[in-house]
């Protein structure tokens, strides 16, 4: 059956790969974006919805727009995120709060906005995109790691709160993925990272998307509160 899917930050990288995976499976997909050209999104059969997830009003309007286009959101993927890396003594409160507001509070906002329809339907699938850094930590990323770790607590609390309504909450924790962000790293930085990955390579956005789509499928109907690492073994033991 074709479902109504909303992916935040679905205009590039992992989010775009996730959106395309659902669309390829026959679902009706809306993606949020903050700015930029949307022609390529529409060409991919996706519905672009302008939304800054740090603004609760815009989040509510985005979910309403998705509902008007495709019906109440049945699958939500909270993927939107930012980084503002800095060592602790140089990190400003604005850098810390801004990352947490986007990555963690933004996920809370969009889950809250989509949950009403799921509760009424007595079914839903929510997948939060965290990071291996949220479990293992990383120097210079205290803000990012804290926000990504917070997603795990958010998902598991809501899994317990809303599980009786047949709504599942799961987390995918990607490792280093071959995206525009990682391509900007120096050759030495890339080599250092790969030395910590047992599989010896970067992941692809499509591999992350496959895990997200599985967790939103009927095959995963008895999985909730889980954290699924897709990191080439980098985070083993966490």
From TrEMBL:
Stored PROSITE patterns: ADH_SHORT
Binding of NADP(+), residues: 9-12, 79, 144-148
Ranges where the Ketoreductase domain occurs: 3-180
Keyword field: Fatty acid biosynthesis, Fatty acid metabolism, Lipid biosynthesis, Lipid metabolism, NADP, Oxidoreductase
Top-rank taxon, per record: Bacteria
Keyword NADP assigned: yes
GO biological process: fatty acid biosynthetic process
Molecular-function annotations in GO: 3-oxoacyl-[acyl-carrier-protein] reductase (NADPH) activity; NAD binding
SMART domains reported in the protein's UniProt record: PKS_KR
E.C. number(s) listed in UniProt: 1.1.1.100
Biological or metabolic pathway of the protein: Lipid metabolism; fatty acid biosynthesis
Catalyzed reactions per annotation: a (3R)-hydroxyacyl-[ACP] + NADP(+) = a 3-oxoacyl-[ACP] + NADPH + H(+)
Active site: 144 (proton acceptor)
InterPro entries (UniProt xref): 3oxo_ACP_reduc, KR_dom, NAD(P)-bd_dom_sf, Sc_DH/Rdtase_CS, SDR, SDR_fam
Coiled-coil intervals, chain numbering: none
Family as reported in the entry's similarity comment: Belongs to the short-chain dehydrogenases/reductases (SDR) family.
Subunit structure and binding partners: Homotetramer.
Chain's role: Catalyzes the NADPH-dependent reduction of beta-ketoacyl-ACP substrates to beta-hydroxyacyl-ACP products, the first reductive step in the elongation cycle of fatty acid biosynthesis.
Protein name from the UniProt record: 3-oxoacyl-[acyl-carrier-protein] reductase
UniProt organism field: Streptomyces mutabilis
């Amino acid at each position: 059956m074709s479902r109504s899917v909303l992916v935040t930050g679905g205009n590039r990288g992992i989010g775009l790969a996730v959106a395309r995976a659902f669309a390829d499976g026959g679902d009706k997909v809306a993606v949020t974006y903050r700015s930029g050209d949307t022609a390529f999104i529409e060409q991919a059969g996706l519905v672009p919805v302008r939304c800054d997830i740090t603004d609760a009003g815009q989040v509510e309007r985005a979910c309403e727009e998705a509902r008007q286009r495709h019906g109440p959101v049945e699958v939500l993927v909270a993927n939107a995120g930012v980084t503002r890396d800095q060592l602790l003594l140089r990190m400003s409160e604005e850098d810390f709060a801004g990352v947490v507001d986007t990555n963690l509070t933004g996920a809370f906002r969009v889950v809250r906005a989509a949950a009403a329809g799921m509760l009424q339907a007595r079914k839903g699938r929510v997948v939060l995109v965290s990071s291996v850094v949220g479990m293992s930590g990383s120097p210079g990323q205290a803000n990012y790691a804290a926000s990504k770790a917070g997603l795990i607590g958010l998902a598991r609390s809501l899994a317990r709160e809303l599980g009786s309504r047949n709504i599942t909450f799961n987390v995918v924790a990607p490792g280093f993925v071959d995206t525009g962000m990682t391509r900007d790293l120096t050759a030495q930085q890339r080599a250092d990272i790969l030395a910590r990955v047992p599989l010896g390579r970067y992941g692809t956005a499509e591999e992350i998307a496959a895990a997200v789509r599985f967790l939103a499928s009927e095959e995963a109907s008895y999985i909730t509160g889980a954290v699924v690492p897709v990191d080439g073994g980098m985070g083993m033991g966490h």
